């Protein structure tokens, strides 16, 4: 009875939202779980015969999930994915119900769910996933998540209770340790060849000690943060050999990458139509999943060549006939990778709009700005505009990084800042827009409101 009432109520709310043009993508799920607290378990029990894939981690969840989905869309495996923005329990329920009939039955073979790190212990026991992907673990919203070791401990305790395969980043010591602490079948992905430039002022290494006995790790090569090739005196805590190993980096730019991947059976080349080292890791995570569910490498390769940027993660939008590239920033490691991939590249003249909000979804604590490697680009010659509720905090950070504050444009109002930013932007160049999450949502609304562009909704 509760299940039927929950499903019916959620579908009515969904229909009403469409009628009144309200987004509220997770609201139907929130109402449904209030009516029937066991609804998620009931829905999963009746659906997805080929299993559920969960993607979690600090950075890369959305892009990795999209890469998996883009490839499955070209295969004969039908699936659903929570593209609508909510990666909490209510968002997962809303996604299932949006693709189900009034009895809660969904015809998809498989589900791909991006899940917030804090909700892994809550939802995984209900989802009983076929595979869990952990992209990385970095400091992110300490006011909400707490310290990394605490998150890793909760992950480990959860995984031990599940009969699931783990897909883990071998180059992240804390993530890799999850494979040792549980008896689950584990696949590792990583990069063994990287000769590119690294961040000079990178203070974001969070896991330079093992989380077992406190032994300090020795890095043979550190790519960014605590990601890299590492060893320890106790070989049990050294970097595991990747099952999907990038063995040859052929090209990496702010537009695309080309590299070779070696598995236990073969070596093949991939062209990735996404920029930066961070997206290569997302690609390797997606490759691990797709290979494990039986998608052939030719199809995977074709998909990666054509995959487009995820929501706010490098997508290029048009505003008054000007090109803007949205690059979400939410923690120092992610910010540093944007700096490395885009702002350190020559010529350093593209205009930059940095929008820092401190709403709940952004995290109230913006002290992470001080761990970002802005000193690496203190000689940046492009126009810089700062905006958002913490615009002056951002301006202060730039001042201490060595920027000429007199040349900065400070405008807390996003709408005014966007107009100011694009006024002098040439039609031949791309403006880089670096917003936190809620600033990104507001900016997309402003851009969509121009009527001369095509901005995809969050639900795609």
What is the number of beta strands?
17
Note the beta-strand portion: 15-25%
**Number of structurally distinct domains:** 2
Rg, rounded, reads 22 Å
**General form:** globular
Q: At the third CATH level, what is the topology name of the largest domain?
A: UDP-N-acetylmuramoyl-L-alanine:D-glutamate ligase
Number of helices: 15
Q: Within the largest sheet, what's the order of strands?
A: 2-3-1-4-5-6-9-10-11
Helix content: 25-40%
CATH homolog superfamily of the largest domain: Mur-like, catalytic domain
Which segments are poorly predicted (pLDDT under 50) over 5 or more consecutive residues?
A: 451-460
Largest sheet entry:
9 strands, mixed
Q: Indicate the CATH architecture of the largest domain.
A: 3-Layer(aba) Sandwich
**For the residues shown, what is the average pLDDT?**
89
Gap from first CA to last CA: 33 Å
Structural class: alpha/beta
Write down the CATH class of the largest domain: Alpha Beta
Give a verbal description of the structure:
The chain has 460 residues and is of the alpha/beta class. It has two domains: 261 residues, UDP-N-acetylmuramoyl-L-alanine:D-glutamate ligase (3-Layer(aba) Sandwich), CATH 3.40.1190; 136 residues, Alpha-Beta Complex (Protein-Tyrosine Phosphatase, Chain A), CATH 3.90.190.20. The chain is built from 15 helices and 17 strands. It starts with a helix and ends in a 12-residue tail after the last helix. The C terminus is likely disordered.
Give a brief description.
The protein has helices at residues 2-19, 27-35, 39-45, 61-72, 89-98, 120-127, 142-145, 148-160, 173-181, 276-292, 297-306, 332-343, 391-401, 414-423, 437-448; strands at residues 52-56, 79-81, 110-114, 131-134, 165-169, 186-191, 218-224, 227-231, 244-252, 257-262, 267-272, 313-319, 322-327, 352-355, 384-387, 409-410, 430-435. The protein has 460 residues and is an alpha/beta fold.
């Amino acid at each position: 009875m509760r299940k039927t009432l929950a499903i019916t109520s959620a579908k009515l709310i969904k229909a009403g939202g469409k009628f009144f043009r309200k987004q509220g993508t997770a609201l139907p799920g929130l109402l449904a779980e209030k009516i029937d607290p066991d609804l998620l378990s009931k829905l999963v029990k009746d659906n997805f015969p080929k299993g559920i894939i969960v993607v979690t981690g600090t950075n890369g969840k959305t892009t990795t999930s999209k890469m998996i989905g883009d490839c499955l869309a070209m295969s004969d495996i039908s699936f659903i994915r929570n593209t609508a923005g909510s990666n909490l329990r209510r968002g997962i329920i809303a996604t299932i119900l949006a693709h189900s009939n009034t009895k809660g039955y969904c015809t998809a073979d498989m589900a791909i769910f991006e899940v917030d790190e804090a909700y892994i212990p809550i939802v995984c026991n209900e989802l009983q996933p076929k595979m869990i992907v952990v992209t990385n673990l970095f400091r992110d919203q300490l006011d909400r998540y707490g310290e990394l070791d605490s998150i890793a401990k909760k992950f480990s305790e959860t995984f031990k209770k599940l009969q699931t395969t783990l897909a883990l980043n071998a180059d992240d010591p804390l993530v890799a340790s999850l494979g040792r602490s549980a008896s689950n079948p584990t696949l590792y992905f990583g990069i063994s060849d990287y000769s590119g430039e690294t961040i000079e002022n990178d203070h974001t290494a969070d896991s330079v000690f093992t989380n077992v006995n406190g032994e300090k790790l020795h890095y043979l090569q550190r790519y960014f943060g605590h990601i890299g090739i590492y060893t320890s005196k106790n070989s049990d805590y050294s970097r595991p050999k990747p099952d999907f190993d990038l063995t040859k980096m052929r090209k990496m730019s702010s537009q695309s990458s080309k590299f070779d991947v070696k598995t236990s059976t073969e070596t093949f080349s991939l062209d990735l139509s996404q920029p930066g080292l961070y997206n290569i890791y997302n690609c390797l995570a997606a490759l691990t999943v797709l290979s494990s569910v039986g998608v052939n490498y030719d199809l995977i390769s074709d998909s990666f060549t054509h995959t487009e940027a995820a929501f706010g993660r490098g997508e290029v939008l048009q505003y008054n006939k000007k090109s803007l590239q949205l690059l979400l920033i939410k923690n120092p490691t992610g910010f540093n990778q944007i700096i490395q991939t885009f702002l350190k590249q020559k010529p350093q003249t593209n205009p930059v709009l940095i929008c820092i909000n401190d709403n709940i979804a952004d995290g109230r604590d913006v002290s992470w700005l001080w761990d970002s490697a802005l000193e690496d680009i203190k000689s940046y010659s492009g126009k810089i505009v700062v905006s958002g509720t913490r615009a002056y905090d951002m301006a202060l950070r730039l001042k201490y990084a060595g920027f000429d504050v007199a040349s900065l444009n400070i405008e807390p109002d996003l709408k005014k800042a966007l107009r100011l930013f694009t006024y002098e932007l040439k039609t031949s160049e791309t403006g880089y827009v670096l917003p936190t999450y809620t600033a990104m949502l507001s900016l997309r609304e402003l851009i969509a409101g121009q009527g001369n562009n095509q901005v995809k909704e969050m639900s795609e």
